[in-house]
Write a structure and sequence with these properties.
The protein is an all-beta fold. About 0% of the residues lie in helices and about 50% in strands. Strand 4 and strand 5 form a beta hairpin.
């Protein structure tokens, strides 16, 4: 199983970023996928999840209405569109499938 995140960077408050996670080594279209994040000095927290078909999504209260998780099963890729970013969204963002994790991508929200 391999999960490779990309798309992080530095963005100003109120800005947007789209994260991508390319998956391989398993049947992507049959698996729920999730995004987590870990801020400095804090525990890793769940952000969002999407069902195998993409028909069902769930979000942490802290990102609801601002973030959108989606997937392209033809490309074995899951996305996280992040809008109206806040400084408290600063963290390393990780893609997850069961007990497999990517290396993470840094998102920094600062002016």
């Amino acid at each position: 199983v391999q999960l490779v995140e990309s798309g992080g960077g530095l963005v100003q408050p109120g800005g947007s970023l789209r994260l991508s996670c390319a998956a391989s080594g398993f049947t992507f279209s049959r698996n729920t996928m999730s995004w987590y994040r870990q801020a400095p000095g804090k525990e890793r927290e769940w952000v969002a999840a999407i069902s195998s078909s993409g028909g069902s999504t769930n979000y942490a209260d802290s990102v609801k209405g601002r973030f959108t998780i989606s997937r392209d099963n033809a490309k074995n890729t899951v996305y996280l569109q992040m809008n109206s970013l806040k400084p408290e969204d600063t963290a390393v963002y990780y893609c997850n499938r069961q007990n497999a994790w990517g290396q993470g991508t840094q998102v920094t929200v600062a002016s």
